[in-house]
Amino acid sequence: MNPTALAIHGGCGVMARLDLAEDEWIAARADLGRSLEAGWAVLTAGGSALDAVEAAVVVMEDSPHFNAGHGAALNTDGEHELDAAIMNGADLAAGSVTLARRIRNPIRAARAVMEAQEAVMLGGPAADAFAAGAGLDIVEPSYFTTERRVAALSAMKRHQAAGTAAKASEAEKHGTVGAVALDSAGTLAAATSTGGYTNKPAGRIGDSPIIGAGTYARNGVCAVSGTGKGEYFIRHAVAHEIASRMAYLGESLEDAASKVIHQDLKPHDIGAGLVAVGADGAITAPYNTDGMFRGWVLPGGRMFVASHAEVFDLATLPRPR
Ligand code: ASP
């Protein structure tokens, strides 16, 4: 049997210990674990990488601890505009939604866009209407709002008024969720979903739904899902750049991903991270911030989650009370 692999992220940033209460850290790690379990269950049952990344991302979209779906960031108008994309490395089929306001699980809508084979990207009210027509769960925009994101928006507005926006904590600013997988048929897939960043301009579209920027998969090469200041991921076509370095220069997954995060993006002084899986099942998760919510599964099925340097074996992780 071919190797299978799965890695996820829940956003990168400074993530100061004090940003979250201890029980919130525990709950966030537990949700990373549930995301891994959902994706891995698909792969071990012989399912597709596409189904695995979608299942893993849905868990994080439903969790209030990550900036996607329920718990997404608010824009400058105090509204949610959600972005998501999914890509199948087998045939380069891809789908994405942007500026969605009412789709409970934007990643499911991205998948439906892909399956419909008409458009790669749908945006705004048309994306919401398409999702409703596809039979997906539609919710009131207030479903996405959590107290933490409301407080984060007020804090960012205060920072903006005081000219100290750069000093705002990462927890106040952004995050994203994503998953990459390799299935037993050798197919790679990537999925990414985000609320963007707190206090973003209305109508702003990040890198997550842009194929080749925040999300990319190509069989025989790699699958990538990114997190960080999306404008720079778009400008560097980060996810595609990693695939290109591997394909054209013969670089390893780890080298290619590390060069893009630690060298190409360095002059911009932004927080950036990603998870990527190679055609051989190799996994890498570089980031240039203090932490990145992340998780991965070893070939035998052992699962690990982490937010900072310390790595937790899911089997011994305390579960929330
Ligand atoms: N990449 C996301 C965006 O720019 C935000 C993030 O990952 O922090 O929309």
TrEMBL record:
Q: Where is the active site?
A: 176 (nucleophile)
CDD domains (alphabetical): Asparaginase_2 (cd04701)
InterPro entries noted in UniProt: Ntn_hydrolases_N, Peptidase_T2
Site positions (Cleavage) are: 175-176
| Record-linked Pfam families | Asparaginase_2 (PF01112)
Q: Where does substrate bind?
A: 204-207, 227-230
What are the entry keywords?
Answer: Autocatalytic cleavage, Hydrolase, Protease
What are the BP-aspect GO terms? Answer: proteolysis
Q: Which GO terms describe its molecular function?
A: hydrolase activity, acting on carbon-nitrogen (but not peptide) bonds, in linear amides; peptidase activity
Protein name, entry field: Isoaspartyl peptidase
